[in-house]
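From the thread on structure requests for the teaching lab: each student submitted one protein with a one-line request. Submission from student K.M.:

"Model TIGR00659 family protein from Marinobacterium sediminicola, tokens only."
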Amino acid sequence: MTSFWVYFAAKPLWWIIVTIATFLFTSWLNRRVGGTPLLHPVLVALSLIILLLQITDTDYDTYFQGAQFIHFLLGPATVALAVPLYDHFERIKKMLLPLLVACTCGALTAALSVIATAWALGASDNTLLSLAPKSVTSPIAIGIAEKIGGYPSLAAGLVLITGAIGCLTAPPLFRWLKIEDDAVKGFTLGLSSHGFGTAYAFEFSTLAGAFAGLAMGLTGLLTAFLVPVLVRLLGL
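Reply posted by the TA:
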């Protein structure tokens, strides 16, 4: 059995199969429990794969030899968000100024609130710098963390946690605030919970998904410009 495992673990195809099979299983599990964000397929699949790598003593580079082919699809999948955006372009064009203002306020609030909270709790400067970009999608957050002196790996993990928390808390907040407009729901999810929130928004409607994709892109762009400036102003 040891020889069998060593042989297959070294093959990129094995880790593609593991990744896809794990995600399919966690998607099925999520549907069975009513689609709760607490058991988000991405978060659960990530945890299971990490556990498998730990148990089998497999390093990340070996795993990524296979997973890189799925990772490549992230780019086309992101570009595909332009399709629902195009379908609702007229409504987006009419609301462009309010959306820009809301996104700017949201990006600033996300960065300043987490920095203030972590600073009050005694976090180190490097941790503060890693927390600042936690509300944008992983590639942008990693790039920002590297530029300002944070820990890219910590920033990537915080992005996932932020996305999961956002998806978990959004539905009760929408009910509490009596928000019925799918455009508002989607934009809120995309702004605060990046890719996780965008995927979750499509469960409401394509309109929510379109506005979530727009918010995710705008927040990433604005955060990339605003966070370095904030860091300098705060003297971190």
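TA comment: The chain is about 80% helix and 0% strand. The chain has a mean pLDDT of 79.
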